[in-house]
Amino acid sequence: MKQSQLFMPTLREVPADSEVKSHQLLLKAGYIRPVTAGMFAYLPLAKRVLNKIEAIIREEMDAVQANEMLVPEVLPAELWERSGRYATYGQDLYKFKNRQSRDFILGPTHEETFTELFGNDIKSYKKLPLLAYQIQAKFRDEGRPRFGLLRTREFIMKDAYSFSADQAGLDAAFTKMEGAYVKIFDRIGVDYRVIVGDAGAMGGSDSKEFSAPAAAGEDTIVYSDQSEYAANLEMAKDDYTRVNKDDQELAEMEKLATPTAKTIDELAALLDEDPANLVKTIMVVTPDQDLVAVVTTGDFEVNLVKVQNHLGYSDVELADENQVREAVGAGFGSLGPVGLPESVKLLVDERAADLVNFAAGANEDGQHFLNVNWGRDVVLEDDQVADFRTAREGDPAVDGKGQLQFTKGIEIGHIFKLGTKYSKALGAQVLDENGRNTDIIMGSYGIGVSRLLAAIAEQKSDENGLVWPAAVAPFDVHLVPVNVKDDDQMKITAELEEALTGQGLEVLVDDRKERAGVKFADADLIGLPIRITVGKKAGEGIVEVSVRADQLSFEMRLSEVTDSIAVLLNGQSETM
């Protein structure tokens, strides 16, 4: 393609409202343009990258016998009302009415749609298992879209769904899709980790995230420095063994006035005690407006995701102090597990549950209890105790190998075992081998296609611009004649273009009447894998070949170019 005919509006200055590297580079290099907050136009270069990403996805989905489909982006609200998500999804859901005043939404994801379609037409276990997917725009009304393509209100996603008659079928589909995702991301050339993830609003049980390490990532990846263990911070666990405390002597509980101790640090200083030997109590509120007291040791933070998963809710929030004071009789800084009203459920982190003779808030402003003990002062059942803490960097990994390390990451894929969450709600059943109706067992598998543009740009770039992996670069070769008025240069450029395209390569020819410096700067900025510069030695049959990723340049005779370019591109694919 001739660059003079390509819509590629590059910028010389970084836009003031672009905060992260990928946003800056994709704007500067003419890949994207904002249309409104959180919604972008994908210009020709970006669309070519998206096409290649989607082609890789389709090939690997074909390899696991997945059916490609396309369902509406506009969905009837009653479908989501039946699953319960119309009420619980939150403000991110785009809602509107048609001219008949019927409620509709813009689909943020399509579990309900696929469940309804397959549930209506699949009635026997003999028709299962099945895999289906689509690549489509999704919509979420983000309260604060930011970081370019990383958090948007409209985005492109590959969503897939598995339908099985039993748990074994779901397990097999989950494993198959995990393997397909590994191949997809390997082929694309993005660096990633497979980590334990949270199912969140999707529901279900087992969940794995594919996260691309990057400074701009909003997620925290927690991993062991000596093993394969990795998890999202929301799900990460440290290595802890419960303590047998039966042989420890219990001291008498007493109340102490602590008017100046409203934080753990202040209480630890007042008592000259390690925060690890104290407890703090955080109040959360469920979607049903029930209060839950969560107790951890003073040196840890409460992990709300672990709490909500334990309770079986899609979300919990920190409680309002006025609500807490009305229910308990005290405000923040004086809360504790002793004497809680029956209306407040109690959860205790396992580390806190192993403490003996510890200090805790007395549920009376400015007062704490000393020498509190479980069983004697607070009744505690086994189902109230679990890991409710947020993992810390440097602590032992849960597998006992190495220490936990933190890095930022971008979620580029997520796979879930949904089970019967949606099939039960929507009545999607099949007859099993005994002729009895049974709920279809489902899995859900997503890839953020447009987000991958940003993730790759975050990882594969330098001070001069983008550095696309060969498998998804918008063009394979950038052919740059230095002087378009030089007959020798243009003759050789035409010959090279014909030879390379004849090999099946995609070639961008910079035929613009621009200075050499402008052409080279733009070439570095848009980041194609190979640049061939046709310059002063064109008359001698010599050109310069540059490899963008390595920043290596060398002269080459025309007779060597076609064979060498293919080798160089293959080498780029293998090293990405």
UniProtKB/TrEMBL annotation:
Keywords for the protein's UniProt record, in alphabetical order: Aminoacyl-tRNA synthetase, ATP-binding, Cytoplasm, Ligase, Nucleotide-binding, Protein biosynthesis
InterPro entries xrefs: aa-tRNA-synt_IIb (IPR002314), aa-tRNA-synth_II (IPR006195), aa-tRNA-synth_II/BPL/LPL (IPR045864), Anticodon-bd (IPR004154), Anticodon-bd_dom_sf (IPR036621), Pro-tRNA-ligase_IIa (IPR002316), Pro-tRNA-synth_IIa_bac-type (IPR004500), Pro-tRNA-Synthase_IIa_type1 (IPR023717)
Highest taxon, organism lineage: Bacteria
GO biological process: prolyl-tRNA aminoacylation
EC number(s) on file: 6.1.1.15
Predominant subcellular localization, coarse grouping: cytoplasm
Pfam families hit by this protein: HGTP_anticodon, tRNA-synt_2b, tRNA_edit
GO molecular function terms listed in the Swiss-Prot or TrEMBL record: aminoacyl-tRNA deacylase activity; ATP binding; catalytic activity, acting on a protein; proline-tRNA ligase activity; transferase activity
Aminoacyl-transfer RNA synthetases class-II family profile domain mapped to chain residues: 48-469
GO CC terms in record: cytosol
Localisation per UniProt entry: Cytoplasm
RNA-binding as UniProt keyword: no
Protein task: Catalyzes the attachment of proline to tRNA(Pro) in a two-step reaction: proline is first activated by ATP to form Pro-AMP and then transferred to the acceptor end of tRNA(Pro). As ProRS can inadvertently accommodate and process non-cognate amino acids such as alanine and cysteine, to avoid such errors it has two additional distinct editing activities against alanine. One activity is designated as 'pretransfer' editing and involves the tRNA(Pro)-independent hydrolysis of activated Ala-AMP.
Quaternary structure (record): Homodimer.
Recorded domain comment: Consists of three domains: the N-terminal catalytic domain, the editing domain and the C-terminal anticodon-binding domain.
Protein name in UniProt: Proline--tRNA ligase
UniProt source species: Fructobacillus ficulneus
Recorded name of the encoding gene: proS
